[in-house]
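Morning!

This is the sequence you dropped in the shared folder:
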Amino acid sequence: MSETTVSEGRRRPARERLLRAAARRFYADGVAATGIDTITAEAGVAKMSLYNNFSSKADLVRAYLEARHDEWLGLYRARFDQADGPREGVLAVFDAYADHAAFAYEHGFRGCGLLNAAAELPAGDEGRAVVRAHKEEVERLLGGHLEQLLPGRLDEAHAAAEHLSFLLEGAMARAGLEGDGERVRHARSMAAALLDRL
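The structure's back. C-alpha cells below.
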C-alpha cells in the first residue's frame, strides 16, 4: 500500500474505515472467525474507536449486513436505470447479483455475503432479520416487475417471482461453491427463457 493510500485512508471517518475492514474480513474469513482486534488493526483505528461507533460486534455485523444490502441495491438501481420495461427489470435483478459476484474479493467469490453471515448467526439474531428483509425485498422487486409484465394475473406474477427468487438463490449458492459468477449468468439466461414463455 502506498503512503498516499494510507494517508487518504486515515482521513476517512473511523466508522467508514471500520465498516470497510469488517466487510473485507467478514466476507473473506467469516463473522465468527473475525475478531474485533483484526478489524481495528485493518481499519487502522484504536479499539475504542470501534466502541465509539458500534455498541458491540453484533452491532457492527448488523451495520455490515445493512451496508452490503445497500451496496446491492446500488448495483440493482444502476442496472434498472438501463432497463427497458418490466422484462428487463426482472433481468436487472439477476445482473446486479452477477455484478456483485464479479467484485475482486480477497479469497475469490464465496457466494452471497449476506447468507454466508446469516449461516453463522444464531436463530433470532437481528442480523438474520436484515438478511431476510433483503431476500424479501429482492422477491418484491421481481414481483413488481412481473405484475407489470402480467397485468391482471397477480397470482401468476407472485408465483413466478418466487420461482425466480429460488432460481437466483440456487445459482448464488452454486456460484459461491464454484468460486465464480458463471451460475448466476446461466440463471439469468434461464430466467429470460422463462419470461419469454409467460
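Headline: The two ends are 52 Å apart (CA to CA).

More detail when I'm at my desk.
O.
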